[in-house]
Amino acid sequence: GDSVTQTEGPVTVSESESLIINCTYSATSIAYPNLFWYVRYPGEGLQLLLKVITAGQKGSSRGFEATYNKETTSFHLQKASVQESDSAVYYCALGPSNTNKVVFGTGTRLQVLP
Amino acid sequence: AQTIHQWPVAEIKAVGSPLSLGCTIKGKSSPNLYWYWQATGGTLQQLFYSITVGQVESVVQLNLSASRPKDDQFILSTEKLLLSHSGFYLCAWSRDWGGEQYFGPGTRLTVL
């Protein structure tokens, strides 16, 4: 079935350092799934960070970027300079599959030190 | 603006007891609706989805059922809770099928 694998957390970085959270996917039931990054900040609900629905395109939001790479089946999340307020849990997701399922990764907890 | 409300915020229930969790979406007609479950330390798993009133499709079998009695309401229930039902339940909606989803605040369920 379809699956998403992402960097195991927790990930700890210092403020102003660069960040990459890896996400690779396997989409056996659909050739071009939609890809998403969701984020849960402390005390808040799960919300969309960015999405890309076309292979080869890049999505960006709040200084984060992710490129839909069909060849490597990856959708890594990157930021050039993180801030303490970026501390959160990040989820990579794909969907929908041919069974109308949205598949989430296990989530990566990011802690940014001041 | 659209809002999504889940109730209750948290529940502590005994094994074998019934359960009903609710979700209401305001400000959007005919949303696509979803139920997710996350065990402690686990990943989000989609349980059900609904495209229209009265129609609910199951994605994962967890001895739970779902119903959509109104356009803006989604109910998750079971007659007999299991220990394995403990976790965090999230309701979500989307405008477009396959598009971004908007999540509710969730319900924390503890089964003892």
Question: What does the model show?
Answer:
The complex is a heterodimer of chains A (114) and B (112). Chain A is 0% helix and 49% strand. Chain A has strands at residues 3-6, 11-14, 19-21, 23-26, 34-40, 46-52, 58-61, 64-67, 77-79, 88-95, 103-104, 108-113. Chain A starts with a strand and ends with a strand. In chain B, 0% of the residues lie in helices and 57% in strands. Chain B has no helices and 11 strands. Chain B is globular. Classes of the chains: A mainly beta (114), B mainly beta (112). Chains A and B meet through strand 5, strand 6 and strand 11 of A and strand 5 and strand 10 of B.
Show the helix and strand layout.
The complex is a heterodimer of chains A (114) and B (112).
Chain A (H helix, E strand, L loop, with lengths): L2 E4 L4 E4 L4 E3 L1 E4 L7 E7 L5 E7 L5 E4 L2 E4 L9 E3 L8 E8 L7 E2 L3 E6 L1
Parallel strand pairs in A: 2-12
Antiparallel strand pairs in A: 1-4, 3-9, 5-6, 5-10, 7-8, 8-9, 10-11, 10-12
Chain B lengths: L2 E5 L2 E4 L5 E8 L5 E7 L5 E9 L2 E4 L6 E6 L2 E6 L8 E8 L7 E2 L3 E5 L1
Parallel strand pairs in B: 2-11
Antiparallel strand pairs in B: 1-3, 3-8, 4-5, 4-9, 5-6, 7-8, 9-10, 9-11
Number of helices of chain A: 0
Distance between the termini of chain B: 38 Å
Strand content of chain B: over 45%
Question: Termini of chain A, distance in Å?
Answer: 41 Å
